[in-house]
Amino acid sequence: MASAGRSVGAVGGGRAFAVLLLITGAAGLLASWVITLDKFKLLEDPNFTPGCSLNPVVSCGNIMKSDQASAFGFPNPMLGLVAYGIVVCVGVSLLAGAGFPRWYWLTFEAGALFGVGFVTWLQFESLYRINSLCLWCCLAWIATIVLFWYLTAFNVRSGFLPAPAGLRSFLDEFPWVPPVVHLGVIGMLILTRWWDFWTS
Description:
- The chain crosses the membrane at residues 16-35, 78-97, 103-121, 133-156, 176-195.
- By secondary structure, the protein is mainly alpha-helical.
- The protein has helices at 15-44, 60-64, 76-95, 102-130, 135-157, 165-173, 177-193, 195-199.
- It is globular, with a radius of gyration of 19 Å.
């Protein structure tokens, strides 16, 4: 029987899942906000150096000046301000006891899939085309990847995404494994890409 204030068929998440959404959404929102402010300063003063430009590799300025930083015709972090804001709202709603129907969770999943696909492209461009890293971008990458995998695990466990019983059981018990492996691979790529620099 549905709880008061929750429609029939609506599914909510546990407190831990809600808090995870809040943390990842807030982290992405913070990164997007800082990058947006620095982008405005860079537009006002082409000689402006962002605070996170620390060396030839960790250089936010190089990232912000690249074509990839405005993939859709406007600064990428403006998209993040909206997307991560939605994640925070969902997290707050779950903490308040809200539940959502299957279509809502699948739409959320589609958005997260787009997000993780977009940051994967940005990671490739950053490592092998722009040849620089942005620490705030890295924070947004981490937030997006963790969000995607935990949301996927939630949707699989809830039966919204079809999956074999073994996979469902695995994601129920070890939902942290996919994001850790994913982030580990990215960490290794970053380490090997600039190995000479890190070890010099």
